[in-house]
């Protein structure tokens, strides 16, 4: 059992490698996709993105998933989001994929269409729909689309309802973007089917009021997502893994439920999705509307546990996982197969390496040698000084020898 004692070297669940199709991750820690709003209006990855993902890969993560990357310009959340809608996007992303791999992690990328929740400003400007003030700053709003002409909230724009032809055209965009992600060398494609974006909005009765083959009963509401998955599976080599991030529930009366997710995930797995990446909420633009979801430690573990038990598939869980023993316990309890970290990785990009040291008592052996060799010796030296009763403040506190 995981507790505050270390587990015997080689027995940690978190540090047991994971093979999925042609992909072998050195451990079960996945860096959750995190938009950086740093792509510029052309959606191209730059040096900043290299540094962003590189530090996580050097930090020892098994898998690093690049941020939500839009399949078409109007599918971006905000002007700074990355894109995969043209061949121009491939080369800069290929540098990121190559860097992630060269540092020992499996490289992944998330693909998104933000649907009716597109055209917003970054979180530090409010994370709300773009308006006149944003236009003055050079970031004008654009027209958004969705399954139905239903806005995400009172202050949100009315989406244009997609026709059947629009739906078919967008399936092709997903497949083309996935092919580019494969060309860029990514080993995992994570589909953003959560947080109220286009795929999720087809599933949720709160956003999908259609009466055709893509609306109404759950079989119809799942249709678009399944068509996207089928098209992507057909477009990419077999060895590339597909992860599907879904909102396991809306947490709102009349919305998508955990039971719906069980049905949906069984279909995803049957279609060649390899990992269910379990998130939740976001169905509307009101961040406080999902009152049934409590954001405590490991807040998606109760949902990922159900999805794992009911579908038999591999499942990732995310949400306030901050401690190595907590992560180990999540896996040991059968709540997930993969532990994803977001903000904790921003706080400490070396979290996976530290977790390994904490869990197994290993001494920097898994770090890249350029750092690990030095850190091992640093540890010996610090212990020696500690044994001699010396502290970093000895020289200044009047208690040491002042050398
Ligand atoms: C800066 C930032 C950007 C994010 N961008 C994305 C994203 O692009 N795609 C996504 O699915 N989730 C995104 N998220 C959500 C995270 O992936 C993660 O699910 C969430 O932060 C909860 O995990 P945590 O408690 O470990 O941070 C973002 C979160 C943060 C903090």
Automatic annotation (TrEMBL):
Record's keyword annotation contains Nucleotide-binding: no
Cofactor: FMN
Keywords (A to Z) from UniProt: Flavoprotein, FMN, NADP, Oxidoreductase
InterPro entries linked: Aldolase_TIM, OxRdtase_FMN_N, YqjM-like
Entry keyword annotation includes Iron: no
Coiled coil: none
Residues annotated as domain NADH:flavin oxidoreductase/NADH oxidase N-terminal: 14-359
Pfam families: Oxidored_FMN
Molecular function terms, GO-annotated: FMN binding; NADP binding; NADPH dehydrogenase activity
Protein name (Swiss-Prot/TrEMBL): NADH:flavin oxidoreductase/NADH oxidase
């Amino acid at each position: 059992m995981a507790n505050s004692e270390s587990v015997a070297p080689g027995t940690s669940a978190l540090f047991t490698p994971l093979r999925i199709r042609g992909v072998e991750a050195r451990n079960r820690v996945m860096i959750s996709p995190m938009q950086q709003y740093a792509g510029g209006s052309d959606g191209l990855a730059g040096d900043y993105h290299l540094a962003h993902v590189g530090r996580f890969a050097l930090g020892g993560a098994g898998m690093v998933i690049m941020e939500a990357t839009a399949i078409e310009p109007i599918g971006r959340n905000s002007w700074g989001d990355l894109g995969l809608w043209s061949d121009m996007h491939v080369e800069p992303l290929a540098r990121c994929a190559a860097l992630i791999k060269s540092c020992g992690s499996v490289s992944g990328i998330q693909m998104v269409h933000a649907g009716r929740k597109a055209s917003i400003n970054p979180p530090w400007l409010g994370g709300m729909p773009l308006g006149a003030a944003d236009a003055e700053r050079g970031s004008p709003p654009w027209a958004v689309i969705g399954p139905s002409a239903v806005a995400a909230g009172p202050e949100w724009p009315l989406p244009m309802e997609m026709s059947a032809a629009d739906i078919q055209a967008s399936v092709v965009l997903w497949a083309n973007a996935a092919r580019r992600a494969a060309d860029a060398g990514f080993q995992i494609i994570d589909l953003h089917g959560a947080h109220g974006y286009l795929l999720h909005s087809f599933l949720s009765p709160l956003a999908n009021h259609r009466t055709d083959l893509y609306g109404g009963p759950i079989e119809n509401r799942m249709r678009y997502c399944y068509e996207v998955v089928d098209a992507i599976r057909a477009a990419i080599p077999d060895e590339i893994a597909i992860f599907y991030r879904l909102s396991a529930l809306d947490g709102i009366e009349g919305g998508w439920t955990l039971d719906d997710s069980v049905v949906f995930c069984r279909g995803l797995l049957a279609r060649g999705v390899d990992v269910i990446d379990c998130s939740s909420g976001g169905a509307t633009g009101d961040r406080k509307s999902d009152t049934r979801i409590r954001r405590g430690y490991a807040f998606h573990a109760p949902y990922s546990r159900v999805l794992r038990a009911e579908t038999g598939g591999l499942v990732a869980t995310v949400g306030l996982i901050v401690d190595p023993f907590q992560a180990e316990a999540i896996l040991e309890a059968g709540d997930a197969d993969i532990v994803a970290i977001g903000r904790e990785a921003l706080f400490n990009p070396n979290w996976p390496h530290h977790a390994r040291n904490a869990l197994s008592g290993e001494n920097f052996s898994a770090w890249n040698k350029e750092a690990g060799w030095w850190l091992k010796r640093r540890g010996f030296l610090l212990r020696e000084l500690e044994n001699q009763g010396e502290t970093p403040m000895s020289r200044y506190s009047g208690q040491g020898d002042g050398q």
